[in-house]
Structures are given as structure tokens and as C-alpha cells.
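Below is how a single chain appears once it has passed through the pipeline. First comes the sequence as given, then the structure the pipeline wrote out for it. We keep one example in the README because the format questions we get most often are answered faster by looking than by reading.
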Amino acid sequence: MEEFKSGFVTIIGRTNVGKSTLLNLLVGEKVAAIANKVQTTRTAIKGIVNRQTSQIIFTDTPGIHKPKHKLNETMVETSFASLKDADIILFLIEATSKDIGKGDQKIIEKLKEANRKTILIINKIDLVKKEELLELIKKYNQEYSFEAVIPISALQTKYKETILEEIEKHLKVGPAYYDIEEYTDQTLRQLAEETIREKALTLLQDEVPHGIYIEVQKMQLRKNKQKEDIYDIEATIYCIRESHKGIIIGKNGEMLKKIGRLARIEMEKNFGLKVNLKTWVKVKENWIDNPSIVDKFKLK
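Resulting structure:
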């Protein structure tokens, strides 16, 4: 009988290369916020894959970028800090890159320091010709000794098994660290905050996206009149400017209602029960440089 294996796998890469999409594909559940905006992921989010002969615990990290304020610094620190705890690293890049850019070069330096088994995943291969892809693989192989190179399109499920099998090959014999029913270590409160933030990021214009953070003040389970379980959730969307508050609320409160409605629908799907969601918007200037708030996003 095959021995059971387990291990921790960190996904790292620049912003917007598709790390959260890849995590959700591998886990088969929505655990990471996905929006078509850079720096969507702020904290290191864990997703758990339970297989017949292994348990793989993935950590999706914030994208590597040039920090402009305290929040960005914390996000980059979190990404690099997670490398030393990994058994295996998935380094995700885009097939459309012609050369190894500064951000990816910095990641390669950190990979050399961490000295962990690393698999190079090249995303968005549908956007380039085969010759360009082979040239890119050659450049990266000259820089680092990867265990494997897997070209993919993270939106297509057919690549899921290839990646999981390659990871399992390099895992050591070990126990299941989490219950086999679990697929994330995030609390329901964190999942609620992430869901609201993702809907806000998806719906809002570029001027607002990353100046917001969500705080759930109340999360209470009760029975409604029909004796069904229902979660009462109250959350505040904080933003950094008064003008942003107006945009988030929208004309006659329409935008806030839309964010709330989409978040509620997704939470009901994820939690498997009804949700009564109330949201407010408040201005908290310069929170992105406030250590007591920003520290919430550090790797725990």
C-alpha cells in the first residue's frame, strides 16, 4: 500500500499573474478573492487539497510588487516570509513575458535563499506561440534549477491533475494536518470579509480598489420564522477618502446594495445557509500606513 504524504506548498509570483485563480482551481473551492485588479490578495491564504494518498496545504501569497506604503511593504514581507516554511514552491509567471523582469528576478533570488524544491508554472500559454514559450523556459532554466516546468492556462481544469501529481511526487511521507472535510483554514468571518472585498474590487472603478478594507463586526447564527438557520452579518467597508465613500455607496445607495447583494449570494453558496447581510461605509484616512490595521495582514 502506498504511504500517505503531506506537505506545505507556497504559490508565489508577481501581482496579477493568476495565483488566486490557480489556488481556487487546485482546491476546487473558492478560497481566494479573484478580481481583475492587481494586488487582490493581501494575506497568505491557505487552501487544502485532500487526495487518496496525500494532503497538500497551499498558501496563496500577495503579489510581489514595489511597495509604496506600509500595507504594500507588509504584503511583500508576507510573501517572502512564507517561502521558508514551504516544502515545495510553485513559482507562477506569465507566458507573455519576453524576458525575466525585475520582479521575477527578485523572486528567483529569494528562491535561491530559501533553497526549497520549486516547480515553475507558466500561466496564460494560450496567448503566445510555442517558439516564444520554449525561449522563455530556456531563460528561466538558466537562472534556477526547477524540479519541473508546467505550462498552463489557470482557467482550464485539465491542468489541475498534472500539477497535483507533480507536487505529490516531491512530497515526503507525513500525516494529514487538517480534517479531510476542510478546504481552507480561514474562519467564516475572514471568508465573509474576503467575499465583500472581492465584490467591491470587481464592481468599483480603478480609483478606489485598494484603499478599502472590510471588518465584520457581527456574525451571529439564529433560526428564522421558518426554523431555518440564518447568519446575521454586519460589516463595515473602510475607505481612505470621503470622495471614495460616495463612489462605494453610489447614487441612491445603488452601488453598496449591489456589492452587498453579490456578496450575500456568494456567502450563502459557500456557507450552505441563508445570510442576512448589512453593510456600512466609513472613512478612515491613512489606514494603509497604520501599523495596528496593517499588521492584520501579516503572515500568522
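The beta strands are 5-12, 45-50, 54-60, 88-94, 117-123, 148-151, 172-173, 213-223, 229-239, 274-283.

See the next section for the split statistics.
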